Amino acid sequence: MEISLLAMDLDGTALLDDHKTFTPRLYAALSAAAQKGVAIVPTTGRQYAMLPPAVHTGADWEDLCVLCNGSEVRRLRTGELLEAHYIEADAAGQMIEIAARMGLSVELSAGGLLYLTRESWDMQREHEDALYFHLNNILTTRGRTVSALEEVLNQPELALDKVNLPYVPQELRAEVEELLKAAPVSYAWSSPHSVEVTHSQATKANGMLAACRILGVDPARTMAIGDSGNDIPMLKAAALGVAMGTAPQEVKDAADTVTASNLEDGAAMVIERYILGAE
């Protein structure tokens, strides 16, 4: 099977554990794939403003990226918005009510920022071991404190790409999941304790398929690589879905094959094998 488009997750897949850089081997594999004519599309839960410089200055990639778990498809170099599915205020309000009822922290993601109350911020600090990167690398630069999240929902022309529940205790996970299943939304567990809620049509799978439409690529010639619950839809939708070695079992079960970890150049290995034809 010839691959024409690679949908590649970033954190835990392409990036090292510093969440910023690629290994030289992966950089070389991406460059060779791009030179072969393969469209390389970063497909991430991140907002455009949170993409690391390595993504903008790395291999000679196709000029597209899928963001916020499929809420947006943008031009990688300019940030031009090509397609979007933003979560409605009513649905976001339901998520805020669920969080309040269950005593959970909640964030609204819009316009490159994360909005949360001081109470929600303090609740996250109680779980700093699990949320260290989020607290110290994301909220410190992108977090904005508001007195009430309804202030954000009432903003005109709000482009709300995600609602995050950053920390759900294991004992509440099943109950939260049942409530989300009954709501008019999509959701994905980006870690065992963190769930991200989007518009019902916003998934990484739909983002990948949108990139195919824009670029004129047959979905039967796609490959996707990922490591988390939010990658499951695109691993199933791609012609070849690849799970990282550190992925949870449900992610591995959704994939066609499993590679090594991000620290062991797992993404580079499968690009070399399935795109570049290395043995």
From TrEMBL:
Q: Which GO terms describe its molecular function?
A: magnesium ion binding; phosphatase activity
Keywords in alphabetical order: Hydrolase
PROSITE patterns referenced in this protein's UniProt entry, alphabetically: COF_2
Which Pfam family would be a valid example here?
Hydrolase_3
Superkingdom of the source? Bacteria
Query: What's in the GO CC field?
Result: cytosol
Among NCBIfam families, the record links this protein to: Cof-subfamily, HAD-SF-IIB
This chain belongs to the protein called Cof-like hydrolase
Biological source species: Pseudoflavonifractor capillosus ATCC 29799
Q: What is the lineage of its organism?
A: Bacteria, Bacillati, Bacillota, Clostridia, Eubacteriales
